[in-house]
Amino acid sequence: MPGARSPAVSLIDRDIHLARALLVEGNNMLRSVGSGQLRDAGIGQVVAVAKLREARMQLEQQRFDIVVCNREFEGSSESGQDLLDELRRERLLPHSTVFIMVTQHAVYHQVVEAAESALDGLLVRPYTAAALCQRIQEARHRKRELADVLKALDAGQTEAAFARALKRFQDQAPFAIWCGRLAAELLLDMQRPDDARRVFEKLHDLKPAPWALLGMGRARAAAGDIAAARRSLAEVLRLDPDCAEAHELQGQLLVEQGDFEGALLEYRAAAEITPGCLLRTQHAGALAFYQGQAAEARRWLEQSLSLGVQSKLFDALSLMLLALLRWDDKDSAGVAAAREQLRRYSERHPESRRLQRMAQAAAWLQQLSQDAAAAQAEWLALAAGVGDDSFDLEGANLLLSLWSRLPPALRTHADQLAAIERIALRFCVAKATAEVLAAAAQRAEPALGTIRRCQSEIQALAEQAMSQSLRGDAAGAVQRLLQQGEGLRNAKLLEMAAAIARRHAAVLPDAQAWIDRAAACMKDSCRVGTHIAGIQRSGRSPGGLQLRSRAATPVAA
């Protein structure tokens, strides 16, 4: 009963009766005891759950002031640390929420990991009610001490939050290291990577730690110095081979460079270190899919289903890739189950062209099992949308994945090859996108040859325009690139047109009009693909502090 006060209640602040707490504990008896301790401490409402996926759902749907979570769960490879890291990384945990971890034993690396993940308190079993109250009291005191910074963050006042955090760091006020780290994160958020790197370097000088080195690597990556970023990450992994964030960031950089084999190694390592992390599990599964590692891909993607198909962090792409893998394995029941789930997703989000496309693709797989000739005709109908504004890289990958599953004799229709050429000319904007198109087509001919040829053609067009500009005809180069970019809807050509116009703006009267024209076309028809090789491009960076408590958009839609 909230009114039943124990002597320990005096340890907590006067507003504790207004607080809501979530207890995550797998053991029935310990869950009952823990709930009682929290209620006896004066906490007004206590919700108790047994599993991490239930906790994730509760935290996505409701706001809690206090979370007390077990680190280890018997019979499961998941951990409470995985849950905390994912919630903070995906900005699903408000700054004001106190997160206390409970562990059976605290070895050194767990204490360091807890401190670096901005954990508010660590308790080792067996602990007393008084010890629990003390941890909560200390954490809530910290929240009050930093209230001006946290309130600015929650209000989206980035400049104010940065100024307050930086001042506390420079003044070496209480919690100065945390404020310095936050200031560096905010500099990254404000697109000031060189300044962020300098702050991370000062933090590392004050307190050498892998997270500071990781921050330096992230800042270098944001500044475009990929080689230096990878050197920083290699140093992090030398000091701490089990740093999942460093593996993940290495994987992201390798994906952007088109090295999917290397990226898979990194994401596999990150997912194995944190098996309870839904996003890393999905990413490892998607990369394995594109690398042709079917058994591994299916294992990771099936695991992601068990981790939380109802979570906001679950992506419908995992279901789509599973449907393809199940079709390859002649698992018709599995394909039907995935189709039904995608259909329900699509009905819940009728505005999502992405989900409609996936539902249609899953239905197509079932049709292919029954009538390949009819499926060939239906593929052509689906391919009619390759020129639509809403068609993106992910849609292109999906269409190529379906094409590669047609019987070889049905893959050479002239209209099919024309559609594949349009896809390649539109999306071959970088090595990474060309490689993922080839991987989606399972590197099957004639698609592979078409993709390689179109990749070379786009590169040749870009080089010809640059040579024309260097010869003194910048206006002609811009106009040529605009015409080609608009016709092919190729972002690389349009971006180059804008770049040349910007560089020669002083002598090109129409420069701004051309820049605006390129930007308008890119906005309408060159949308960034949701994924490259299944890696969500959400803008977040592994290893960073949570910057603002904003609601996440369900990635399924």
Description:
With 557 residues, this protein is mainly alpha-helical. Among the domains are: 7-145, Rossmann fold (3-Layer(aba) Sandwich); 457-535. Helices cover 63% and strands 5% of the residues. The protein has 26 helices and seven strands. The chain has helices spanning 28-40, 52-61, 80-89, 108-116, 129-145, 147-154, 158-170, 176-189, 193-206, 210-222, 226-239, 244-256, 260-273, 278-290, 294-308, 316-328, 332-348, 353-370, 372-383, 393-403, 414-427, 431-440, 447-470, 474-488, 491-503, 511-525, and strands at 20-24, 45-49, 66-70, 98-103, 121-124, 531-532, 535-536. The chain has a five-stranded parallel beta sheet with strand order 2-1-3-4-5, with helices on both faces. A two-stranded antiparallel ribbon has the order 6-7. Residues 1-10 and 548-557 have low confidence and may be disordered.
Number of strands: 7
Radius of gyration: 26 Å
Structural class: mainly alpha
Measured distance between first and last alpha carbons: 42 Å
The CATH superfamily of the domain at 7-145 is identified as Response regulator
Provide the CATH top-level class of the domain at 7-145.
Alpha Beta
Q: What is the CATH topology assignment of the domain at 7-145?
A: Rossmann fold
Report the average pLDDT across residues. 88
Low-confidence stretches: 1-10, 548-557
Q: Give the count of helical stretches.
A: 26
Shape: globular
